[in-house]
Design brief:
The protein is an all-alpha fold. The protein folds into two domains: 51 residues, no CATH class; 117 residues. It is 84% helix and 0% strand. The protein contains seven helices and no strands. The radius of gyration is 28 Å and the shape is rod-shaped. The chain starts with a helix and ends with a helix.
Length: 189
């Protein structure tokens, strides 16, 4: 592959990046070819040393998406970064998607526990008051003070769990970005 073919393929594969980013990348690779040619290497040798332009483009796109997810935190940007990291190879399908799905599963379960505890507590509180005002419809076998106390405790525990989940979500977002960056650096070297 000569310089023109290499640059054409690279430019085509980088189409999803902003034009200014593409220009910078292409400029760098043009410079690689100029330096190599000044050292007496052929264009084919330089292209072979640089590697596959499609893989190079995927690496740049993945890094761009990770940086975007880091500077503009959102679920959409995080998923875009994960998909671009997975596109680097089958290795990433296992070592990126697997741990991410496990973490998301744990996070969803933790949110469920928080909501469940809150709803349980509120149900105990309102059920006790409902029994006090409508004794013919419901009958609790525990003392109302105990029922209300447990209700307040479960509600407070559920709210604390939800607050903890909020902070855990922020931490896991940052940890996922760092893991993706580490993974891409590992694969591209």
């Amino acid at each position: 592959m000569n310089k023109e073919e290499f640059i054409t393929i690279l430019k085509k594969e980088l189409h999803s990046l902003p034009p200014s980013e593409i220009e910078d990348i292409l400029y760098d690779y043009e410079e690689h070819f100029q330096v190599g040619l000044s050292k007496g290497k052929s264009e084919e040798e330089i292209a072979k040393e640089l590697g596959n332009p499609k893989i190079i483009a995927k690496s740049y796109i993945a890094n761009y998406k990770i940086n975007d997810a880091e500077t503009n935190p959102s679920t959409k940007n995080l998923f875009a970064a994960i998909v671009s990291a997975i596109s680097l190879g089958f290795f990433n399908l296992i070592f990126v998607l697997g741990p991410f799905l496990a973490i998301i599963g744990i996070l969803i379960a933790t949110y469920g526990i928080g909501f469940g505890l809150s709803i349980t507590g509120l149900s105990l509180i309102f059920g006790t008051f409902f029994e006090l005002f409508f004794p013919n419809y419901i009958h609790l076998s525990i003392h109302p003070v105990i029922s209300i106390s447990f209700g307040i405790g479960f509600t407070a525990l559920g709210i604390l769990a939800l607050i903890g989940c909020f902070y855990l979500t922020k931490y896991l977002y940052r940890a996922t970005i760092k893991y993706l960056r580490w993974n891409i650096n590992l694969i591209t070297k």
